[in-house]
UniProtKB/TrEMBL annotation:
Keyword Hydrolase applies: no
Name of the protein in question: Tripartite tricarboxylate transporter TctB family
Domain DUF1468: 9-145
Organism of origin: Thermobacillus composti (strain DSM 18247 / JCM 13945 / KWC4)
A family per Pfam: TctB
TM helices/strands, residue ranges: 7-26, 41-58, 79-112, 118-136
UniProt keyword terms in alphabetical order: Membrane, Transmembrane, Transmembrane helix
Length: 151
């Protein structure tokens, strides 16, 4: 039986992510006329993350091996994780067509309907989405995807 070391796999994923961010940081200016540019922070942060992920991979190879199946949640915890992933996927798929209000309400409803009665989950999801919409769109002026009705 082959035992997979989850620490090494996590370190590899972190290393790949940090190398990608490091590579992308070169498309931003490191300095501007006023001081540090937008590329300085991601370049340094991802460089430090590359070093830390290499150290973590090295330490994971020397320590006790544990399998990924031993650390992943089971039962209710796994269902919670899957419902969050499903809700985020649904949000990404429908937000440009339905607007932020409907997509956000659907996303929160998917997460909440197992823990509340369906009508309470729907009300909570709508109110939270409405509050977020009112904070970001009119108050802060953040561009949010809207439908033909403006919400």
């Amino acid at each position: 039986m082959i035992r997979q070391n989850a620490g090494i796999w996590a370190g590899i994923v972190l290393l790949l992510f940090s190398v990608f961010v490091f590579w992308q940081s070169f498309s931003l200016h490191y300095r501007t006329a006023f001081g540090p540019g937008p590329g300085m922070f991601p370049r340094w942060l991802s460089g430090i993350l590359i070093v830390l992920s290499l150290v973590y991979i090295w330490q994971s190879a020397r320590k006790e091996i544990f399998r990924l199946s031993e650390i992943l949640p089971k039962g209710e915890g796994l269902i919670n994780i899957l419902s969050v992933l499903l809700s985020v996927f649904v949000f990404m798929v429908i937000v440009n067509r339905t607007g932020f209000m409907i997509a956000g309400t659907a996303m929160l409803f998917i997460v909440l309907f197992r823990h509340f009665k369906w009508y309470a989950a729907l009300i909570i999801a709508f109110v939270v989405t409405l509050i977020l919409f009112l904070i970001f769109k009119p108050l802060l002026g953040v561009p949010i995807p809207v439908n033909q009705f403006g919400w």
